[in-house]
Amino acid sequence: MKLRNVMMFVLTLGISNFALAAAEITIKFSHVVAPDTPKGRAAEKFKQLAEQKTGGKVKVEIYPNSQLYKDREEIEALQSGAVQMLAPSMAKFGPMGAREFELFDLPFIFPNQEVLHRVMDGDVGKKLFAKLDTKGVAGLAFWDNGFKQMSSNKPMHSVADFSGLKMRIQSSKVLGAQMKALGANPQVMAFSEVYTALQQGVVDGTENPVSNFYTQKMNEVQKHMTMSNHGYLGYAVIVNKAFWDGLPADVRSALSQAMKEATVFEREIAQKDNDEALAKVIAAKTTTVYELTPAERAEWQKVLLPVHKEFEEGIGKDLIQSAYDAAAQVAKEQSAAKKK
Ligand code: LMR
Question: Torsions phi, psi of 180, nearest 5?
Fold first, then answer.
């Protein structure tokens, strides 16, 4: 009897060791942009940190440039468990029923990055992630890209210049309303299709931070870019919730730490990547880069700010108010610091 118990113990030990050796966890991380962008580089950083911190128990496979899935499909693939991790822009959450994310698409709501980070890193960010919980998705972090610029084959100085332009947008109702307020015709289209659509004249123009514009070679097919900084493009890094909750606790905690460090890295490089991309666009000389005058900017703001009110219900008045409050608080702190 005793011998039998010992044998059972040895057998169990053997099986559990075997299970451990074979327990490699794979995270497929799919995204739609080039590897050489803030999101692409941070995904690589996360891979490196995650594999190192889990001692090789976790392998992260990155699929950039819509190699696996386009915008809408990638969210479905995450929910079904075909991939485990994504970082879609906030503008892509509306179709899954999380319209609150469109707060980040509102034109001219964030005067600078400081305000933006306070909002996403505070209660608003928590509320957004809580909303995802109900959709089989867990939110891990917010990553930056940067402020968007307008591009087309026509100069865009005054609002009248947008009249009748077909402008590609991401799948956000706010972005649709923004383009309509400018007098343009918005066209929702997957990111991977934008270059060809611009080249073939299916659309006339688009909006994106310069890092996306340059790495997709849009400067080859867009003669004009206006540095308008009229809106923001950033990401929510998300995982399949059942996958995440099912991870061994030590693995989940190592991955959380890896994500934390990758996020610090991401936010450090995002602005720099956009500045460098702008220098490359200027050097390529295929796109004329225009800075709005203060009067032109004021005209854009006049037609675009009413979009906030239009979306009070869809996004939530309280969320919009949080952004206004953060902007007022940062302005107050900045002016007090100047007086010192
Ligand atoms: C876009 O579709 O324009 C962006 O969301 C792409 C991205 O992920 O930065």
Answer: -65, -40
Produce one character per residue of 19-53: b if its CB has 16 or more CB atoms within 10 Å, e if not.
eeeeeebebbbbbbbbeebbbbbbbbbbbebbbeb
* Model confidence band, residue 24 (pLDDT cutoffs 50, 70, 90): confident
Round to whole Å and give the CA distance between 335 and 157: 30
CA pair distance 218, 229, nearest whole angstrom: 18
Mutating to test ligand 1, I would choose from 212, 215, 235 the residue with most ligand atoms within 8 A of its C-beta, which is: 212
The yes or no reply on domain 25-339 and CATH 3.40.190.170 is yes
d(CA 165, CA 224): 13
Alpha-carbon distances of 132 from 138, 139, 193, rounded to whole Å: 6, 7, 27
Among 258, 260, 276, 160, smallest CA distance to 209 is for 276
* Cβ(208) – ligand 1 distance below 6 Å: yes
pTM of the complete model: 0.92
From the list 169, 176, 104, the residue with the least C-alpha distance to 142 is 104
Structure confidence at residue 15 (pLDDT): 44
Residue 9 has pLDDT above 50, yes or no: no
- Residue 275 predicted with pLDDT over 80: yes
Atom of ligand 1 nearest to the CA of 88: 8
Beta strand 224-227 with 149-152: parallel, antiparallel or unpaired?
antiparallel
**Domain locations in the chain as residue ranges:** 25-339
- The residue contributing the CA closest to ligand 1 atom 2 is 191
